[in-house]
Amino acid sequence: MNTLNRRKFIAGVLAAGTASAFPGLSFAVHYEYPLGEAEHGARKLTIDKSKVLAAMRRDLQFVKTKLRKSGLL
Q1: Other beta carbons within 10 Å of 54
Q2: Any residues with CB less than 8 A from the CB of 10 and at least 6 apart, and which?
Q3: Predicted TM-score (pTM) above 0.85
Q4: How far apart are the first and last CA of the chain?
Q5: pLDDT tens, position by position, for the chain (73 residues)?
Q6: Cα gap 7→52, rounded to integer Å
């Protein structure tokens, strides 16, 4: 399994000027925990939709906070 070292990655992006060179640079958040079977491609959730959305919002907020602290957002 490849694990991304976030600090080295962000430092490399900043050092290379990638953030300013590619203003549309995008990131994806991959969820690796139970999401009401949505993680397996189910079209109908087995848990309350609000719980799934809350988990996704929490992770998105975490990523945004890290990006802001590193100057990428």
Answers
A1: 11
A2: 66, 70, 72
A3: no
A4: 28
A5: 466 777 777 777 666 665 555 566 666 777 777 778 887 888 888 888 898 889 889 988 988 888 788 776 6
A6: 28
